[in-house]
Amino acid sequence: MAKARPVELDPRMxxxxxxxxxxxxxxHELFAHAGHVLDTSxxxxxxxxxxxxxxxxxxxxxxAPCFNKRDHRxxxxxxxxxxxxxxxxxxxxxxxxxxxxxxxxxxxxxxxxLDLLIGREREAQAEGNIAxxxxxxxxxxxxxxxxxxxxxxx
Amino acid sequence: xxxxxVKGLDPAGSLQDNARRIVAVRAQEVLDLGAAxxxxxxxxxxxxxxxxxxxxxxxxxxxxxxxxxxVKPLKRLQDVLGEIHDCDVHLPAVRRLARxxxxxxxxxxxxxxxxxxxxxxxxxxxFHQEWPEYERTFTPLSHAADGNPLEVGS
Lengths: 154, 154
Prior knowledge:
The structure holds 2 protein chains of 2 kinds. In chain A, 75% of the residues lie in helices and 0% in strands. Chain A contains 5 helices and no strands. Chain B is mainly α. Chain B has one domain: Alpha solenoid (CHAD domain), CATH 1.40.20.10. Helix content of chain B is 73%, strand content 0%. Chain B has helices spanning 15-35, 43-63, 71-100, 103-142. Chain B is elongated, with a radius of gyration of 19 Å. The two termini of chain B are 28 Å apart. Chain A binds chain B through residues 4, 6-7, 9-19, 22, 54-55, 58-59, 61-62, 65-66, 95, 102, 106, 109-117, and chain B through 3, 9-19, 22, 54-55, 58-59, 61-64, 90, 94, 97-98, 101, 104-112, 115, 152-154.
């Protein structure tokens, strides 16, 4: 998992100043992980972007009183939607890896049942990838990154 | 699960004062939900605790309140609750699929169901045994707003 970028916070900062710095850093981090997330052969990329989306969501929730209510509500909703799409892709990734590991430890007679389940998870992974592509396109169309930067501007 | 509202937050006030107020509420939330999650047959209560623990962890990472030592136990708690949740999600689906499938596949699915059930019982027991230690760790955080010497800043 990618480590979070350090946020230069000082306890003497105002809450609003800390909000600006944190949301700007976390937004940048989210989109820095967007490359190749649709590549199902490298499942860590989607994981890193999902974790970044959780960190940004947490920052938006913690610092909510510092932002314009209407803009904040809309952006939080869109970040949650993107996080949901990342989760829909990530969950089958994790399941497939766990089931394959378990399959290797079980006798051959048990394999058809696990193969059935792995097949279903692969279908969910493909569907999750379509949902993620759509969510990334929506983020681009609605300039989610630019609007987050605007929200974070002091 | 909706997070409890934190009163008295002030964007013009210091990061430290605001962060302490939020941490106190979120830590109390974890303590209350943890006390209510000691029944192994109440997956909803365990799920709510998992979400509250996640909120508190990201908050501590974000603000640095409590220092790095307070994040580690939360991560451990999240891991055990996360794995319990996975078992709670997958076990009913695997059992249903085993009932609906021909014997060739059903055998492996029954094995998998037994694996999930056994693992879930072990994990809950670990969580239940370790809860008093978690309580001792998180209680000082629930008093963060009182002005105890807690580290702020990352």
